[in-house]
Specification:
The complex is a heterodimer of chains A (about 100) and B (about 550). Chain A is α+β, with helices and mostly antiparallel strands. Chain A is about 20% helix and about 30% strand. In chain A, strands 3-2-1-4-5 form a 5-stranded antiparallel sheet. With about 550 residues, chain B is an alpha+beta fold. In chain B, about 40% of the residues lie in helices and about 20% in strands. In chain B, helix 1 runs antiparallel to helix 2 and helix 3 runs antiparallel to helix 4. In chain B, strands 16, 17, 18, 19, 20 and 21 form a 6-stranded mixed sheet that branches. Bound molecules: iron/sulfur cluster. Iron/sulfur cluster binds next to loops of chain B. The site of iron/sulfur cluster (SF4) has 13 residues of chain B, from loops.
């Protein structure tokens, strides 16, 4: 049996700051996974990735990441994205 | 210490100016990421998981106080107030912003430092014994050799696009602290039967996906032939090294697949050809330049001091903390009355190899005051004060303690090498740092750590093995097992002149299983050893893997019984 399609979000790094960003429903970039747009089909996900990756003067390394919806909120499936959500474990930035 | 000549300075400044232009064009959209990426990598700028990372070379691990002060300034001004010292004598800044990087490179150039050739398929930063120029067991200071290699390999037009990256390490001591047998080329300074200086040349070592122990390609190479011989090796590699598969592209695979004899014949033929050129080999350095380099590393004039310090002896008997630190964290200096101090960046619970800007300043001040302005960075991610008078040890200790840098654990179980792993690294398959922190905390009790004695735990967050796990007495490799972190344990590795690759213990462990397994393993060793003098490695070699594997997988064994 084919595996069910896992919903996707688009994530990348900001060109200037290098930090982790997520594509939102308006085609802009946000810094919180909770505000990211969720794509339910391969077609919409691929199309979103394509247009995101085309923003060469804003982002680097855009890719699709699996998520699951928990109480309507996207949560990472893989611990790589968990790390991207959480930031480096050590030496957290305490500056405002 | 070596000082840039006008050529070095102009070269570095030109590269900074070029990179400034490249960043501007990237930001304006004139360069795409595909076009820009190789340019930024040539200047040591990576994109990691959460941010850019700038890798700065510390050639042969030597830093002056001024350079360390500048690294502190950079950490504070353009990063988050700390830097990470790596297993290849580099420092990494983990949070620079793209538009700031040209400024950072300019600030590095001001103190004769750069990030060139810290990435890409070229000859990387040359590493050396971190006790160079100070060790009691040293035949000769390896740093003039390393500096010569740095000059030869910097911007070498023929070797800018090798099949894969290329790493060279040099030791001047028979006790190998530079892991020379795990490098593409390892050089050991030796003397021939007549006392003439030269090198034993080792080729084809490496860790990573396919660990290989380097093999001796030339037992004795006269000192003056060094560059033509290195040129011959790298030429042969450049010609015949595989480019079809990046996992098989290192020289270790070439040596392994073709056989040492064949490679040796090719290298010797190439070498002969160069030596036969009319006017001599192209890369033979000018003796005046060699003399200039050597003069920079001339043995320092240290005031004579008595071998025994009555003052220190009295203090040691009164201050057990100081005594423990002097015992574990200082080593024999070649001059009586002096010690080499190892400052471990491994305070319990901290990130191995990280130093804050204020700690860097403390270290710089201590070097200026007590160690002839010199510091060294070790591949073990520690900082060395190479020339400290015995009488000054209490003052150095007290200052370090106030800065949280006086952990008496050099060479002990909590002196762990750990790569950045998935906390930072985009290539990682698992985290390394929390595993190191967990183990260090479990063995935080100094008496227990000292009872266990010499113990090297080395952790890598992926198969690339930046954390040298293959050669740890206990190696830990973090993998991704169906989306979950999983840790493979290896036992019996050795990072010295008797280099050995550890043996896999068995199934991988979950993150939370690693710490308890380490405790059982150490308990087993303490039970099994013949005496306190038998190190873990000796006990492992005597008894074989079985009892140690048994300790790691104790519960399973009990279930199966
Ligand atoms: S071993 Fe892997 S995870 Fe660790 S620093 Fe190297 S590439 Fe990154």
């Amino acid at each position: 049996m084919a595996k069910p399609y896992l919903p996707k979000v688009v994530t990348a790094n900001d060109l200037l700051r290098g930090d982790v960003i997520w594509l939102d429903a308006q085609g802009g970039w946000v810094r919180s996974l909770a505000e990211a747009a969720v794509f339910d089909t391969p077609q919409t996900a691929e199309a979103a990735l394509k247009s995101a990756a085309a923003q060469v003067d804003k982002v680097v390394g855009a890719y699709l990441a699996d998520i699951r919806l928990v109480g309507g909120e996207p949560e990472p499936v893989h611990f790589r994205e968990e790390m991207r959500v959480r930031g480096a474990f050590a030496n957290l930035d305490l500056t405002p | 210490m070596y000082r840039y000549d006008e050529f070095d300075d102009a070269f570095v400044r030109t590269r900074v100016a070029q990179f400034r232009g490249q960043v501007e064009r990237r930001l304006s959209g004139a360069l795409t990421e595909d076009e820009f990426k190789p340019l930024r990598l040539q200047n040591g700028l990576y994109l990691q998981l959460h941010a850019y990372m700038l890798r700065v070379a510390i050639p042969y691990g030597t830093l002056s106080s001024t350079q360390m002060q500048q690294l502190a300034m950079i950490a504070e001004r353009w990063d988050r107030g700390f830097g990470h010292f790596t297993t290849r004598q580099n420092i990494q800044f983990n949070w620079p912003k793209l538009q700031d990087v040209p400024e950072i490179l300019e600030a590095l150039a001001d103190v004769q430092m750069h990030a060139i050739q810290t990435s890409g398929n070229c000859i990387r930063n040359v590493t050396a014994d971190h006790f160079a120029g100070a060790a009691a067991d040293e035949i000769e200071d390896p740093r003039p050799t390393a500096e010569l290699i740095r000059q030869w390999s910097s911007d070498h037009p023929e070797f800018a696009f090798l099949p894969r990256k290329f790493k060279i390490a040099v030791t001047g001591s028979p006790n190998d602290r530079a892991v020379t047998k795990a490098h593409d080329i390892g050089l050991r300074m030796v003397r021939d039967a007549n006392g003439a200086p030269g090198y034993e040349v080792i080729v084809g070592g490496g860790l990573g996906r396919t660990p290989m122990i380097g093999k001796v390609i030339r037992g004795f190479l006269p000192k003056s032939d060094l560059l033509p011989y290195l040129e011959a090796i790298v030429r042969v590699y450049n010609l015949y090294g595989r480019r079809d598969n990046k996992y098989k592209a290192r020289i270790k695979i070439l040596v392994h697949e073709e056989g040492l004899e064949k490679i040796r014949a090719q290298v010797e033929a190439e070498f002969e050809q160069q030596m036969a050129l009319s006017g001599g080999p192209l890369v033979a350095p000018d003796p005046a330049q060699v003399a200039r380099i050597e003069a920079y590393f001339a043995a320092p004039e240290l005031p004579e001091r008595p071998a025994h310090s009555q003052n220190l002896s009295e203090l040691l008997s009164l201050r057990p903390n100081l005594a423990a630190w002097v015992q574990t964290n200082t080593s024999d200096h070649r001059q009586p009355g002096y010690r080499i101090v190892t400052v471990t960046l491994k305070s319990i619970g901290e990130v191995p190899g990280d130093a804050s800007a204020s700690q860097m300043r403390v270290l710089a001040d201590l070097a200026a005051r007590y160690s002839l302005d010199e510091l060294r960075i070790s591949h073990e991610q520690n900082v060395i004060l190479p020339h400290v008078a015995q009488d000054d040890l209490p003052a150095v200790f007290d200052t370090l303690r106030a800065a949280g840098l006086a952990e008496a654990n050099a060479g002990l179980i909590s002196d762990i090498i750990a790569c950045p792993g998935m906390d930072y690294c985009a290539l990682a398959t698992a985290r390394s740092i929390p595993i190191a922190q967990d183990i260090a905390k479990r063995f935080a009790e100094p008496a227990r750590a000292r009872e266990i004695g010499k113990m090297q735990v080395k952790i890598s967050g992926c198969i690339n093995a930046c954390g040298h796990h293959h050669v740890g007495h206990v190696g830990i490799l973090g993998l991704d097992k169906a989306g979950k972190e999983n840790y493979q344990i290896t036992l019996g590795g050795d990072a010295t002149e008797t280099l050995a690759v550890g043996e896999r213990a068995g199934r991988g462990l979950d993150a939370e299983e690693v710490g308890p397994a380490m405790e059982r393993l150490m308990d087993a060793y303490l039970r099994l050893r013949l005496s306190a003098d038998e190190t873990f490695l000796q006990a492992y070699r005597r008894l074989g893997a079985a009892p140690f594997k048994g300790a790691i997988y104790e519960e399973e064994n009990a279930d199966a019984a």
